[in-house]
Amino acid sequence: MVAQAFVSHPHGYDAFMVSFVHTADWQLGMTRHFLSEEAQARFSEARIDAIRAIGQLALDEGCGFVVVGGDVFETNHVERQVIVRALDAIGATPEVTFYLLPGNHDPLDASTVFRSDTFTRHVPDNVVVLDGGEPVDAGDGVRIVAAPWSSKKPLIDLVNRAISGAPDDDGATIVVGHGAVDVLSPDAADPAVIRLADLEAEIGEGRVQYVALGDRHSTTDVGTTGRVWYSGAPEPTAFIEDDPGKALVVTIGGADITVVPHPIARWTFRSLDFDLEGSDDIDHLDEALSGIDKKATTIVRVVLVGQLSLADKAHLDTVLEHHRDLFGSLNTWERHTDLVVLPDDEDFTSLGLSGFASDALTDLVKAASVDGEQAATAMDALGLLYRLTGSSS
Questions:
Q1: Full-model pTM
Q2: What pLDDT is recorded for position 348?
Q3: CATH of 3-263, one of 3.30.750.24, 3.10.105.10, 3.40.50.360, 3.60.21.10
Q4: Residue 203 φ/ψ, nearest 5 degrees
Q5: Rounded to the nearest 5 degrees, what angle is found at the Cα of 6, between the Cα atoms of 228 and 198?
């Protein structure tokens, strides 16, 4: 996907050329409740590796710097190791300057990670924290105007305020901001949303050449100029993200701009829906899961709808248990799953139960036929009884 825009600038940028990488929403230190301890360690490692990949992308594409549009860290209170490893990864490409913007997850408040002892002691020379002071000289006539968050709940459009304070001269301006744009926000009345019309007016006047945004985790071209973009998160964080896992290489030359997304992510999120009415449907689910590549770095949620016998439910449990050992995470989406298990006589005729076990079976079947939490517990117990007894019969 390549986006190009041709804008006539009154300040005469015909000879101007710059290439850089736009990324955002690293959220280093993020944890996911559905990951095991082992998978979480790999998930965290991939986010650090993404930094190195972004630095190498900058070198490969001839970019002198990287702008990070906010939420570098998941919180201002991340563990020391996360900070040290992140800075070490940035330092792996000393030829590339990384400009880091504080966002809503890591605002520049009294507890900011960017002024912590750990950060200041280990920060490499190729890091510049965009604290919102004077425009930053990025070399070759390029300046960066930044709109950092100083709290989690700003009461003003920080991006357009930053632009209004930028000098109006022949320098080329790249704006780095974070937050929701009004045309994409569910709450357009929020005073902190970024007003797209104001951004496009500045671009039309030639005062701004590119707006690098963070907060939206899906790569998104905003508006009509081709110069306002969300890079998306370099590693995905949730199922709802449409197009995450990329970094943007931006090249501006004269009135032309080219924005090229490059894949970065190792992890993926997948949602699968299945109607289950018997053993054949369960086999199809098994085949679908088996056909997914890179299982160890894939997070899957399945929505299961239908009606199964107890034997089929035992079959399903065996299939899911097997694949849970292979995937980064595999879980059912309980809120949307509607799977009914109705035991029939054939489920138990081959089990040969007698005495206490037969009495327990009768009690469980009766309990499972009544609505409520007790029924769900009884059904789980029936499934376990079937699997244990059936496996030994």
A1: 0.86
A2: 62
A3: 3.60.21.10
A4: -65, -45
A5: 40
